[in-house]
Amino acid sequence: MRNSWSVIAAILLALPFAPASQDQALAQSGASSSKQDNASAEQQGFLIRQTVHQVLVDIVVTDKDGKPVRGLKKSDFTVKEDGKPQHLLSFDIEDSNGPGFTPPKLPPLPANTFVNLPTTPEKGPLYILLYDMVNTEQVDQMTTHKPLLDFIDSKPEGTRFAIFANTTGLHLLQGFTSDRNLLHAAILSPGPGPHLPKVFLYGENYGSGSTAAMVSIFNFIAEYVEGLPGRKNLIWLSGNFPMSLNADPTHERDMDDESVKQAFAAMARSQIAVYPVDAKGVASMARYEGMAQSGPAGSRSNESITKGGVVTLPGTMGAFLQGSEIGIFTGGRYFTGNNDLRDLMTQAVEHGEDYYTVSYRPTNDKYDGSQRHIEVKLPKKEYKLEYRQIYFALSPEAELATHKEGTPDARYVAAKTGDTLYANIEHGAPMLHDLLFRAHVGAAGEPALATADQMLLLQDEPAFFRTHRPNHPLKPLPPVKLQKYLIDYGVFDPQLKTQAARTGRPATIEFAAAAYDAEGILLNGILNDAVASAPANPDGKNQALFRVQQELNVPAGAAWIRIAVRDKLTNRTGTLEVPLPLKPEPPTVAANTGN
């Protein structure tokens, strides 16, 4: 397969850039939004509605030494909900011993030319590193920076991370990548734009100890990865975990709050397992040693927490119990009691890289928000199982109630549940290479003030959206400068020709592009279709090749252009992301793009 990728990549790179033919061109003169409401999406034929409610359960199985247990089958697992057996609909395995993806070695690319192949290998599930400086004492922040860098520099090869920082709000420092150099640079970046301060002094001003603030963060992250397949392991690096989730209903707990239920339902829907990692180290936990059962070095078992007991305790013990509870609700594990912070985070990665996923349709089909309990068993009782033990049976309407109906965010979240393209066009989403393409991005002309029609189209984008207030009719948005970019695509995929011969119709490909500012807020986007019309080779044989040019008007302040290409029939997708500003072009290329 690696040789096949090399051949395809070589063909893509060898294609000369030239203006696309008239019937292939997708140039658009206005500002066109890639966010569309459900009715419009259905007309274009790419919205897939989820009509069957299923519960997904990721199960980590380890032996007595904490090593992953491999080779289990669907028939080995028994699942009950509230004591009632459930029929398993699906069964999948994520094995870290698998081959992963090793990209071919590519020659240097011309300026502003990109191929959707990573520079480093990829394998395993997605990881999200959340460094919560708001809930970490300043003294602990000063000792956390170096081990955090050490962890990134030594993380297992191929693991894909996105890095978020909770400081003056939640900031994405680096989108998903397996490249250690990019992750290292994101931590060291001094700004401008999102960056990680060495010490954050204002935690109390930004929600330190606030459950509501963490609910907002969990909701955002869950929605951010909504639509991306598979498990996501969220490593929550913090000195405190302000969320009381005790399973004992006789004690006061945050999980009785409707917003908390919705946040955990959103994380379950997005397959997020939370791994709280204590930034304080072993000294602060020493007096609690032995109060809870220990798992493999540095981890804390959930078993003693599930039996109930007082949760809202001050200081370290409260943080310990709360961190353990979060593992119960999400299928992760709490890591503490070890001064080697890099080791704790490494253990969290290793724990979440091997798992089994089962799904079932609950026999109880009442989605009334009630708490449901999941029990998973294997014939061999010496194995340790960790999985999401509790979920809330919320209706789809209740799950989306965190956003006001009719707002762009509500429409976007609703669309993401039915169409993977929305998830993959997000800034910082993983690079996809199921469908391989090459793209050249070039600025056309100088920035110019937007027309009234262009501003009208921009007003539904998050960067420009304004809410209506009673007796205060909205005035037209003042015009902003727009820079026109031309995106020249070349798509080569042997499966497209085979697919056309099998179905009797040419392939239809979607081309999407979106511009984001440094904070990841969508500025503008566009979505177009094109039908394959493969040119002939000199030997008379046709290649499965698209040549397409697309136009995107980008408001000032843009930092990224995200590009996605998708085969509408098979849903195979390719994505990449281009940082702005672009590199200087040779005079001949710049002339072709209008400069």
Structural class label: alpha+beta
Shape: globular
Strands across the major sheet, in which order? Answer: 8-7-6-9-10
Radius of gyration: 25 Å
Output mean pLDDT: 81
Strand tally is 23
Can you describe what's shown?
- With 595 residues, this protein is of the alpha+beta class.
- It is built from 14 helices and 23 strands.
- α3 runs antiparallel to α4 (180-188), α3 packs across α8 and α5 (211-224) runs parallel beside α6.
- It is globular and about 70 Å long.
- Residues 18-25, 27-51, 282-297, 300-315 and 534-540 have low confidence and may be disordered.
What's this entry about, in short?
The chain has helices at 2-14, 38-44, 138-154, 180-188, 211-224, 258-269, 315-330, 341-352, 396-399, 408-416, 420-424, 452-458, 494-503, 587-592, and strands spanning 55-62, 78-81, 84-85, 88-94, 113-115, 126-132, 160-167, 169-177, 232-238, 272-278, 299-300, 334-335, 355-360, 371-377, 384-387, 390-392, 437-449, 481-492, 508-517, 522-531, 545-555, 558-567, 573-579. With 595 residues, it is of the alpha+beta class.
Helix and strand layout, with pairings?
Layout: H1 2-14, H2 38-44, E1 55-62, E2 78-81, E3 84-85, E4 88-94, E5 113-115, E6 126-132, H3 138-154, E7 160-167, E8 169-177, H4 180-188, H5 211-224, E9 232-238, H6 258-269, E10 272-278, E11 299-300, H7 315-330, E12 334-335, H8 341-352, E13 355-360, E14 371-377, E15 384-387, E16 390-392, H9 396-399, H10 408-416, H11 420-424, E17 437-449, H12 452-458, E18 481-492, H13 494-503, E19 508-517, E20 522-531, E21 545-555, E22 558-567, E23 573-579, H14 587-592
Parallel strand pairs: 6-7, 6-9, 9-10
Antiparallel strand pairs: 1-13, 1-15, 2-3, 2-14, 4-13, 5-17, 7-8, 11-12, 14-16, 17-18, 18-21, 19-20, 19-22, 22-23
